[in-house]
Amino acid sequence: MPGDHGATGPSAPVLPAPYRTVLKPYGRALADLARGRPDIVCLSGDLTRQCEIDLFQAEFPDRFIHAGMAEANMIGVAGALARSGLIPFVHTFGVFATRRPLDQIVNAVAYPRLPVRIVGFMPGVSSPGGPSHQAIEDVALMRALPGMTVLDVADVTETAQAVAAIADLPGPVYLRLKRGEIPVIFPADHPFSLTRAQLLGDEQADGTGAALVASGMMVAPALAAASALRDSGVRVTVLNVPVIKPLDTATVLAAAAGAQVVITIENHSVIGGLGSAVAEALAEAGLGRPLRRIGLADTFADGALTAPYLFARYGLTTQQVIDAAWTALSRPGQPPRAPSPDLQPGDYAPV
After folding, report:
1. Residues tagged active-site
2. pLDDT tens, position by position, for the chain (351 residues)?
3. Is residue 127 exposed (0-12), middle (13-18) or buried (19+ Cβ within 10 Å)?
4. Which of 19, 29, 232, 281 has its CA 20 to 30 A from that of 71?
5. 151 by DSSP, 3-state: which?
6. From 3.10.20.30, 2.30.42.10, 3.40.50.970, 3.40.50.720, which CATH number describes the 20-183 domain?
């Protein structure tokens, strides 16, 4: 084992699946923060209700700007507001928050290192709208910009914690959020950090198992896959990485050093996102571990009426995480089957 990459730190508890769901956790968290922060202003790119900021608009109409379907202009306005001492939160779907106004983000926000918070909803193939609406490269685009902090959070608890945590962070931030019913995976005292990834649960690989490294919507499938693998005798570490940039390389390397294989899991292209960040960390540290990247394999996705169809079509399900770990570990026989939880109305299950 090359070198000593340090301890992985304490593990973070998770709630049992299936997870209950909550609507509009981001909208409530932003309004809660704004009550004590008159410097926070909110901008909408014609997707106010869809981005949960109708709650902000109703309570703080004088601090709300409807920028319309003009995302490039909205970013420019946000940069000007930041230069005047305000903290602008900018909202639209992830693809329109990053791909469409990229030049304005570079020149009006990132280059001057202004405290603009860009919030992109409906990441990856969680959108049914096809390539025009699927933000499959947003993390890669934002991660490439100097000084940009990039977050992809997993649940209600992390969403609320992230809103408060990024308020006073120097420089620009990209926050990636699921739209709609959001699961509650972590308890209220979850140790969210802008500098540390978290091991989830108490069981860890012991040098012979797998390290599952996940972010955002793929944390729930990683946890479900880990449960099935452990029931079949595989030692598994699950690492939640809500902050993809700057990456907590120390914790990633420690988890990888204690495992036989590393599996990254992201609702994004395998190029430029979490998988690339982990690969770079392993290579630069000289830590040799087989790496499997689960994500969109350098392809655009089709449109579909339901997101689960797309997750299955493009290899982003719990079963495909299980299969990848089983194969990478050269386990004999058929891999275990993904659990099928007994869901009640309002429950959330991973794909």
Report:
1. 71
2. 334 454 455 689 999 999 999 999 999 999 999 999 999 999 999 999 999 999 999 999 999 999 999 999 999 999 999 999 999 999 999 999 999 999 999 999 999 999 999 999 999 999 888 899 999 999 999 999 999 999 999 999 999 999 999 999 999 999 999 999 999 999 999 999 999 999 998 788 788 899 999 999 999 999 999 999 999 999 999 999 999 999 999 999 999 999 999 999 999 999 999 999 999 999 999 999 999 999 999 999 999 988 899 999 999 999 999 999 999 999 999 999 998 878 888 889 788
3. buried
4. 29
5. strand
6. 3.40.50.970
